[in-house]
């Protein structure tokens, strides 16, 4: 009798643990798929804002509530390759974007890009322009125009065209690795 109670208690406790692990696993999967996820920066296209191998937290839920805005640093899924890229939103639907004489223009107005100060100085010292000229492009509805901050080393909307909103995975919220450089990317 005592052995039967002990066996039943053990089974109940095991079942409780399994339910707890299933709940934790399900909650973790939900958060990872729909809310937040880690991302490893691969390459130098966002230097000097983000560096190769840094890790960022990506807010996947933000764009369920609103659309990306210029200046947002986003993770995009540009094609069927399965790769994710990290870029900066430069223009949104309805905007006309162009570059001439190393200056980006949105709707005919020069875009202020303080985050490029170091990159422009380095390009100038090397005798090159940071942003090559490109003809005006009007961004269609449901799309954004993205560029890397390291313009001479970035595959972005200048090559692949505007990115559809359903290919925007989320917004980079914080750098969490390396621990010595935790920060909010700007």
UniProtKB/TrEMBL annotation:
It catalyses: Cleavage of hydrophobic, N-terminal signal or leader sequences from secreted and periplasmic proteins. It is found in: Cell membrane; Membrane. Gene3D superfamilies: Umud Fragment, subunit A. The active site is at residues 45, 87. Coiled coil: none annotated. Belongs to the peptidase S26 family. This is Signal peptidase I. It comes from Brevibacillus parabrevis. The gene is sipT.
């Amino acid at each position: 009798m005592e052995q039967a109670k002990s066996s039943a208690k053990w089974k109940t406790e095991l079942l409780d643990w399994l339910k707890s692990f299933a709940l934790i696993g399900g909650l973790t999967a939900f958060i990872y798929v729909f809310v937040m996820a880690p991302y490893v920066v691969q390459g130098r296209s966002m230097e000097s804002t983000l560096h190769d191998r840094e890790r960022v937290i990506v807010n996947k839920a933000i764009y369920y509530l609103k659309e990306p805005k210029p200046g947002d640093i986003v993770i995009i899924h540009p094609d069927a390759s399965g790769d994710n890229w990290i870029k900066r939103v430069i223009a949104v639907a309805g905007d006309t974007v162009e570059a001439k004489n190393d200056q980006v223009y949105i709707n005919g107005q020069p875009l202020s890009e303080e985050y490029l100060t170091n990159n422009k100085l380095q390009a100038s010292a090397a005798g090159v322009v940071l942003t090559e000229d490109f003809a005006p492009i009007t961004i269609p509805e449901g799309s954004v125009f993205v560029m890397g901050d390291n313009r001479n080393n970035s595959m972005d909307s200048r090559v692949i065209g505007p990115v559809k909103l359903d290919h925007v995975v989320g917004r980079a919220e914080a750098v969490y690795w390396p621990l010595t450089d935790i920060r909010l990317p700007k």
